[in-house]
Write a structure and sequence with these properties.
The chain has 6 helices and 2 strands; from the N terminus they run H-H-H-H-E-E-H-H. It is mainly alpha-helical and 172 residues long. It has a two-stranded antiparallel sheet. The termini are far apart.
Length: 172
């Protein structure tokens, strides 16, 4: 991919795509139900702050990942497995969080993904309440981001089958 293609993918996929904002709203809703962080009120204003917090973390992560991956020639897009069997495809989904393709099409550790996740979690300290700033919060936030990413890859991997089931259930 060229630099302009990478930038277009980042803007369209992370900033403009409705699903990127839905993932932030979903995680913010869980945080809101758990009143996390408790320093933010448990009303609409608190939810807005939690939504902005999650949106910013995902956007910071995606931006750092795209730049870093571009600099070292790694792929940021999810490429579905062209293998047979649910087990192999599930492994591909899981491994996609930790490995990616380089320019030669070879598997490489996905440094930009896990580096950007931790970077985004540390950057969030600039706007989070002071009582919510420790290493365990960084680790928890990073695991949430990696989990949300795995869920997205799972949906993308099995979306053809899910669409067929959905169409069949609707009688089309």
């Amino acid at each position: 991919m060229t630099g302009p293609e990478r930038l277009d993918l980042l803007v369209r996929g992370s900033y403009l795509k409705p699903t990127s904002h839905l993932r932030a709203a979903f995680v913010a809703s869980i945080n809101h139900l758990q009143n996390d962080p408790p320093q933010w009120d448990n009303d609409i204003h608190g939810f807005r702050r939690r939504f902005a917090d999650r949106s910013a973390r995902f956007l910071v992560r995606d931006t750092i990942e795209a730049g870093w991956a571009g600099a070292i020639g790694h792929e940021v897009r999810y490429i579905p497995c062209n293998c047979e069997g649910a087990g192999r495809r599930l492994w591909h989904v899981f491994a996609g969080g930790f490995r990616t393709y380089n320019r030669a099409g070879e598997w490489r550790p996905h440094y930009s993904r896990f580096g950007s996740v931790f970077a985004a979690e540390y950057i969030r300290y600039t706007w989070r309440p002071h009582g919510d700033r420790d290493a365990s919060e960084v680790a928890t936030g990073a695991l949430v981001q990696l989990g949300v990413g795995a869920t997205g890859r799972l949906i993308r991997e099995f979306s053809p089958e899910l669409k067929r089931v959905w169409r069949k259930a609707r009688g089309k």
